[in-house]
Design a protein that fits this description.
Elements lengths: L2 H27 L8 E4 L13 H14 L6 E8 L8 E7 L9 E9 L2 E11 L2 E8 L2 E10 L2 E11 L2 E4 H15 L2 H6 E11 L6 E10 L5 E9 L4 E4 L1
Parallel strand pairs: 1-2
Antiparallel strand pairs: 2-3, 3-4, 4-5, 6-7, 7-8, 8-9, 10-11, 11-12, 12-13
Length: 242
Amino acid sequence: MNTKKFLIIILLVAVGILGYNYFSKETTNTPKNKEAKISQNEENKNGEEGNFDTTPFISFLDKYITKNQNEEEKTTTDIEEVDLNNDGKNDAIVLLKGMNWCGTGGCTVVVFENKNGEYKEISTIPTSDTFFVDKKITNNWKEIKITTSGGGYEPALETYIYKNGAYVKKSEIELKKIAQNFAENSEEYKKDGEKIELKTLVSSATCENCYEYEFEFMNKKDSKKSTIKVRVEKDGTAEYIK
């Protein structure tokens, strides 16, 4: 074999090896196509890429959506898996978007608690556009911040805290305290009242940014029940309702 033929053979072998490596790399990096009823945003609200395996939860969420939606419409999701109660297990917060989950007031946020790999829905929060988990902890659970808009209201950032097994709006708890303190300072209650408790809570029909509370209490003299009604504006202003 002369030198020229030998060099040609070496060149052909080198080209073959390079071609194999190129096509092998292309095949390895080609994403697999997966059909799914939901699409997932794997970035958390801090802009960092999720470093968790969401496959078990995605499977659960797919079944949850199928069970709870009324029509076969596409549902998209923003998902954050985070340990909300510091038990070492990632819970999940999901913003559901689509015709089944959205209206004039925004879309729907659902909070799931992870109990040993089994997911339990603990809160459904409507009129939500975005959310993030706060570092602040109340009742051993992280607080959740949710933006609300639409439905005739100005955009706002609401804080939700965990209480009695669910996430509730912090402002509503604070307004209830204001209303109850106002009721307990009424002349009627201070004179003969005891064992006051909330009976009803409704949005005011005459005040757009108000809640109306009806408290019931016992009369010390005759053990009869009496009621006091209080209207509280979102800024904390309170008044009695006759």
